[in-house]
Amino acid sequence: MKELEYPFNAKQIISKKRKLRRLLMEKADGFVEKKIAILGGSTTSEIKNMMELFLLNQGIRPYFYEAEYNQYYQESLFPSEEFVKFSPDIIYVCTSNHNIEQYPSISDAEETVDRLFADEVQKYCTIWDKLEAKFHCPIIQNNFEKPAFRLLGNRDSYDYRGRTNFLMRLNMEFSRQAWHRDNLFLCDLDYVSSDYGLGKWSDAYYYCMYKYAMHIEAVPYLAFQVANIIKSLFGRNKKGFVLDLDNTLWGGVVGDDGVDNLAIGSELPKGQIYTKFQQYIKEHKEIGVFLTIDSKNEFENAIAGLKHPDSILTEEDFVAIYANWEPKDQNLLAIATDLQVLPESLVFIDDNPAERYIVEEQLEGVSVPDIGKEQDYIRIIDRSGFFEVTSLSADDQKRVAMYQENAKRKQAEVSFADYGEYLQSLEMCAVIKEFDIMHYARIAQLSNKSNQFNLTTQRFTKEEIEIIANESSYITLYGRLEDRFGDNGVVSVVIGKIENDSCHIKLWLMSCRVLKRDMEYAMMDCLVERCLEYGVSQIYGYYYPTEKNSMVKNFYRDMGFEKISENENFNTEWKLDIKHGYQRKNKYIELKDGES
Amino acid sequence: MSREQLYVKLNEIFREVFDSESIEVSDTTTTNDIEGWDSLMHIDLLFAIENAFEIRFDMEEGLTLQNVGEMADIILKKYNND
């Protein structure tokens, strides 16, 4: 919904809150449901309401538990019965500098201030420890905004008695804690408040009148950040850019102006702006975001533009280049198909409002930010939080290479008459093993973001994965696939629950980037093998249809299962007898024992 | 601005904030007359009024209002004195 995308109008969001909620709820069918506990050090109702809007806009339907006013510490140490029963998926500790127990005073010795600092840190460490032990779920914690005033003026920032200095020290320590704790995620209140404008943020009217920790107009900006962290934790980040060229990646129109006259490079102010923008875009590859081009141009001209000596981005940086005269929405769909991603995981960047409009109208869910003038591009894309990073695994960093390899595989595919021959040529090998601690995060991430090849679409947190992994009544398998073009990482997950001599498949998912590679056969073989070790005679599979998983509607049939029931929601139940023999299915993937 | 003009605008604000096209406020309207007019929505409402009329309420001013009429008095006074 446009109203809730950056750059949004916070005043309007506040006064239209009810209407926006109503409109979002009308579409809330099939949303992921998440339970969020807010433990606040100030009034949090408005923050909660705003978070709800932004999360609904991300396809997440939140249910909230809101602790009583300023009870964040008590609730963490001695959670109420209601809080415990609520069993949150995420806890948000919404504190601010209003909650500092004691600031240094000017007469304090340095040791005294060190003690105040240690006490404050200890308080939060206790909160995080207790919450972690009790709820095993991600915790989002605000750090501190800068103080509303500076008694020592500029010296406040470097004198140990200054409030600014005290808060900065705390923020450094919070960062260190978050870096070392798996489950702690900081919401950077310091950055958000500076970005918003600290003077207005710290409006005493709203604190004294209503105990709001910030100006009411700043609330949507904070809620937006928290919602971005949450959607990222649940695998709802965008995956790649679809970029226009002319007046987006360089100034001018390459077909009309010629390569030599494009504004790019350090000589002219306009060229500098585009150079900065290209650098910004290119850096996204480092966090696993892929780049593609969707431009109305002759293909040769597009390539010529990218060959401009000052162009930071080159042809090799893009995993797909569509430069032609087709409608842009059609190109975007083709890109999604090529890369085996959903259109809604793409961000379309174009300076031309008419092109943005057609993509926005034709393709629901694609992000189409209004990027403003060239000097605004970076700020608007950056603040939009499309790729909010909550984890940065080795797999994430390799992801762009994987998309590139995918494109190469697609080319290889063309040169083989027989698909089997093609699969053979890929020299695939897989590691299929039970869940281990190294992979909990990736497994949880997959369970949250796989929508298409996902039989039950059940979502799991990392903590839930860990619990299941340690439960002897579960068979768990993750599969990692490599081939001659590279390592695809962990791409498939299966969870089966053993009951007597049956195994019930609770989760079966696979990343679409390894579709049609027979990886599901290899997984099936391993599952059956494991089942036989457990003395299982029959395996039950379940398919729960969603808007996105129709591709696996007949998955169990194709795997040789027999359909035993179907209910009014078209949920189907399948059964496979393995007691009387099982024909191995995988022909092309070699199984390896350990990690490579 | 006249009181009539004020009410035209005030009705627009109430309808938007409470998401109901049928709202018609008058001097005697109180919080009990409008569904959902709780303390939280009251803060949003005052903020919307401040933005629409480009005024700012003083501390505590918005908290003691008995009805919309009193609210209208304050808005008119602030708006017309500017």
Task: Map the helices and strands.
The complex is a heterodimer of chains A (596) and B (82).
Chain A: H1 10-15, H2 17-26, E1 32-40, H3 45-57, E2 60-66, H4 72-77, H5 81-86, E3 90-94, H6 110-135, E4 139-142, H7 163-180, E5 184-187, H8 189-196, H9 198-201, H10 204-210, H11 219-233, E6 240-243, H12 254-257, H13 269-283, E7 290-296, H14 299-306, E8 318-324, H15 328-339, E9 346-349, H16 353-362, H17 377-384, H18 394-414, H19 419-425, E10 429-433, H20 440-449, H21 462-469, E11 474-483, E12 486-499, E13 502-510, H22 519-533, E14 538-543, H23 555-558, E15 562-566, E16 572-577, E17 590-592
Parallel strand pairs in A: 1-2, 1-3, 3-4, 4-5, 6-7, 6-9, 7-8, 10-17, 13-14
Antiparallel strand pairs in A: 10-11, 11-12, 12-13, 14-16, 15-16
Helix pairs in contact in A: 2-3, 3-11, 6-7, 20-21
Chain B: H1 3-18, H2 39-53, H3 68-81
Describe the structure.
The complex is a heterodimer of chains A (596) and B (82). Chain A has 596 residues and is α/β, with parallel strands linked by helices. Helix content of chain A is 40%, strand content 18%. Chain A is globular and about 80 Å long. The two termini of chain A are 44 Å apart. The model of chain A has no long low-confidence stretch (mean pLDDT 93). Chain B is an all-alpha fold. Chain B is built from 3 helices and no strands. Chain B has helices at residues 3-18, 39-53, 68-81. Chain A binds chain B through residues 11, 14-19, 22, 45-46, 49, 205, 208-210, 212, 216-217, and chain B through 13, 16-19, 36, 40, 43-44, 47-48, 51, 59-60, 62-63.
Which regions of chain B are unreliable across 5 or more consecutive residues at pLDDT < 50?
none
Helix and strand pattern of chain B: HHH
Shape of chain B: globular
Strand content of chain A: 15-25%
**What are the low-pLDDT stretches of chain A, counting only 5+ consecutive residues below 50?**
none
